[in-house]
Every structure is written in structure tokens, then in C-alpha cells.
Specification:
Layout: E1 33-40, H1 51-66, E2 75-77, H2 87-92, E3 99-101, H3 109-122, E4 128-135, H4 137-142, H5 168-183, H6 187-201, H7 215-220, E5 223-225, E6 228-229, E7 239-247, E8 259-268, H8 284-295, E9 304-307, H9 312-322, H10 330-334, H11 352-355, H12 363-375, E10 393-400, E11 405-412
Parallel strand pairs: 2-3, 2-4, 9-10
Antiparallel strand pairs: 1-7, 1-8, 4-7, 5-6, 8-11, 10-11
Helix pairs in contact: 6-9, 8-9
Length: 414
């Protein structure tokens, strides 16, 4: 059998590449990414509309807020609704996106999706990505369409915890107890987080609960999972919201001053509690570090923070892990009123999940509030810097599962 025909033995030592990659285009320069539109749907007690209707309402409002035509939307991200999310929701909205994301990692889903969308836009894979969420969790339970907010099931790793009644809230309660044991964090310090969230909600007309709270009221409310009483826990509400991210090319056509995505970070930690190396450290320790590095900023540059707060302990430990205070010092940090709108670091300026709204995966609401604050659109709840100017840098940090995942997004006006 004859061997292969030998190639040429003479000619230039090097020359133009041949084959299918010989005419590959030059890579596109990465584009800056801005938030062009944000909006809430009806929130709080919403008994009439379906979750699909809340998605549509929020999407229309965010598009109107941006001043752009819906034809620019070529990317779509959604989770938590439909058998084929986000395909069903996109169809309901009349969209045919060429870039989609259905990442579902609990409450941090939306910060993770925002990171994905920002990367896609920067790389030229999409020009305008709509993130949208809607839930009627409260109304469904009230109407007995479901018996609980959610169930993670009992398969896979969870099978080893479910038989012992290890509910989601009990996982957070265990972590809080460990922090109290390790660092002397007190119930009063945890309660102060709820008190300050309620104070911030007082001037938010969209907040579900606005009546002032005291530490004693938090401590004396109904016990849910030691050490959490009812007022240590987020509220149950209905509601939806939407965020539109766009490439810098579209910014001249938008209706408002853009808010830019400066840096993002994501991280996952564990599913089974036995695989969590340290109950006092959340995955925000990683996602936050990455976001700050990519933004070229430090915690000292942040003017306000929107932090996932399904339970008071989440706010405290996330502040530590993001670097706003040292590990173990979160209790002392939060008890001095620093989280109030006029405080040293305003946190959850709309009242958070503890007082404003919590229809399920709340992470997208964090981005909406951060953008409104940077734009100066928060009305009587507006944060200002000590010099009277609007805030310049805001951080949104979402947490999913029982500290299983984290996404951090840093936004700025510059």
C-alpha cells in the first residue's frame, strides 16, 4: 500500500495560515454595559394577576423606562416560571431572543444572570438583554393553589437531610447560631437588622410593611426556628420586576442617564450542610472579591448596598464577607445604625425582603433599587452622600439556597 505523498520540501519557512480559520475576523473589542431600564410590577398583596401578567407588566414598564423600542431586545433571561423557562415567558411576552439564560440558583439567580448578560453584551453576543421576574407566592398560598412557598424535594444529596426535618429556615438558623457561638453575636444585634430595614421601608410607598419596629418587638415575636422569630424572617408577598441591560452603542438612544455595570462576580458553595466548611462564611466572600477586583474598586468606594435578606443573619454575614467589616465584627457593625438610609452604609434602602417585598427569588429587586438610587429616583427614600450629592457606586449581592450560591454586581454612574 503506498504511503502518503510527501509535501513540498522548499518554499518559505512561514506563510499565511490555510484552512477554515485563515480568514477569521479580528475579535471585537469588549463593550461597556449599562442598565437602561428598571421597573416594578404591582407588588405586595396582588390577588388578581397571574405570574405571567406580572412578568409582562414589569417588562413593559422597564422598556418604557429605557425609552427604547422592544425591537432592540435580542437577549432574555428568566427563571422560576414555566416548564421551559425562559422559553414560555419569552413567548408570552412576544419575544424571539437569540441569547437566553435560565440559570436558577435561588435568590442569587438574578445577579448571576446579570453577570452572564453583561459578559454576553460586552462580547457582542447580544445588544440588549431583558431580565424579568414575577411571582404570586402569597396569593397562591392564600387561594390554596399551593401549600408552601417552595420545595427543593428529597432527591440527590438532600435525601440525607430531609428525613430529619431539616428545613431551609433551620439551615439558616444553624448558621446564625454558629456565628453567635464563634463571635459572640447577640440576638439584639440580629434584631437591629430588622429594625433598620423597617425604618428604611417607612418612606417607601411600595413597601408592604412600614410601621416602625423595636428590638424588643422582634425578639418577642413568634418563634419560627431558634434563634429566628417571625420578625427575623422575610415577609411573603407577590410582585415582579424587570431590568434591561444594553450595550454602550444603544446608550445615546436611552431616555435616562445610564448606570454602568462596573464589575461582577459569582460563586457556589455547597448543597449539603455537612459539605459547608465554615457556617460563618458565605459564598459572597468569593463573589464579592471577584466583583471588586474586576471593577477596580474596594468596599470603601461603595455608597450603598442592596443585600439579600431572607433572614437577618444573611445581612450581617454578607456585610462581613464583602469586606465592609472584619469577620466576626458584623454584630457590632450593624447595631450602630449604619444600615439606615442616613447611615454610614445604607443597606436595603427600600426596606428589603424583611419589610418591602419578598415574592420568592428577590435578587432582581436588589438591582432595581440600586439603579433607582444611583439615578436619584427613590423619592423620599433617596440616599445622598454627606456632601449632598447622589451616590456614585452601589452594590447588589444576592444569595441563593442556604448560602449555596452568591452573585455580586457593582454599579456606578461614571
Amino acid at each position: 500500500m503506498p504511503g502518503p505523498t510527501p509535501g513540498p520540501t522548499s518554499g518559505p519557512a512561514s506563510g499565511p495560515a490555510s484552512g477554515p480559520l485563515s480568514h477569521a475576523p479580528e475579535p471585537r473589542p469588549r463593550r461597556r454595559v449599562a442598565v437602561a431600564g428598571v421597573a416594578l410590577s404591582e407588588c405586595g398583596r396582588v390577588d388578581g394577576p397571574t405570574p405571567y401578567a406580572l412578568h409582562a407588566q414589569a417588562a413593559r414598564r422597564a422598556l418604557a423606562d429605557s425609552g427604547l423600542d422592544r425591537s432592540v431586545i435580542d437577549g432574555f433571561a428568566s427563571a422560576g416560571l414555566g416548564t421551559l423557562a425562559p422559553v414560555e415567558v419569552a413567548e408570552y411576552l412576544g419575544l424571539r431572543p437569540t441569547w437566553v439564560d435560565s440559570t436558577s440558583v435561588g435568590g442569587s439567580t438574578w445577579e448571576v444572570m446579570a453577570a452572564h448578560a453583561a459578559d454576553a453584551i460586552a462580547a457582542g453576543h447580544a445588544n440588549a438583554v431583558l431580565l424579568v421576574y414575577g411571582s404570586t407566592a402569597r396569593a397562591d398560598i392564600k387561594a390554596r393553589r399551593r401549600t408552601s412557598n417552595l420545595s427543593f424535594g428529597a432527591r440527590g444529596p438532600l435525601q440525607f437531610e430531609v428525613p430529619y426535618g431539616h428545613t431551609l429556615i433551620s439551615k439558616y438558623a444553624m448558621a446564625a447560631r454558629r456565628h453567635m457561638h464563634e463571635y459572640g453575636t447577640t440576638l439584639e444585634q440580629l434584631a437591629s437588622v430588622a429594625v433598620q430595614a423597617r425604618a428604611n421601608a417607612a418612606t417607601n410607598p411600595d413597601a408592604m410593611f412600614r410601621t416602625p419596629l423595636t428590638v424588643d418587638e422582634v425578639l418577642s415575636s413568634e418563634m419560627i426556628a431558634d434563634p429566628f422569630t417571625k420578625l427575623h424572617c422575610c415577609i411573603r408577598s407577590d410582585g415582579g420586576c424587570a431590568v434591561l441591560l444594553v450595550a454602550q452603542d444603544l446608550v445615546p438612544d436611552t431616555a435616562k442617564t445610564p448606570v454602568w455595570v462596573l464589575g461582577t462576580g459569582t460563586s457556589v458553595s455547597h448543597t449539603t450542610m455537612s459539605e459547608w466548611a465554615d457556617f460563618t462564611v458565605s459564598p459572597a466572600a468569593v463573589s464579592g472579591r471577584l466583583a471588586f477586583e474586576r471593577a477596580g474598586l474596594t468596599p470603601a468606594d461603595v455608597d450603598l448596598a442592596e443585600i439579600y435578606d431572607a433572614f437577618t443573619y444573611m445581612t450581617l454575614v454578607t456585610l462581613e464577607d464583602l469586606g465592609f467589616c472584619a469577620k466576626g465584627e458584623g454584630g457590632a457593625y450593624v447595631e450602630k445604625g449604619r444600615l439606615l438610609r442616613e447611615g454610614e452604609l445604607p443597606v436595603n434602602t427600600d426596606g428589603g425582603g424583611l419589610s418591602a417585598c419578598h415574592p420568592g427569588m428577590r435578587g432582581l429587586f436588589l438591582l432595581v433599587e440600586a439603579v433607582r438610587q444611583l439615578r436619584g429616583e427613590a423619592g423620599p427614600g433617596q440616599v445622598t452622600k454627606r456632601d449632598g450629592h447622589l451616590p456614585e457606586v452601589a452594590l447588589a449581592s444576592g444569595t441563593g439556597g442556604w448560602f449555596c450560591s452568591s452573585g455580586t454586581v457593582i454599579l456606578g454612574r461614571g
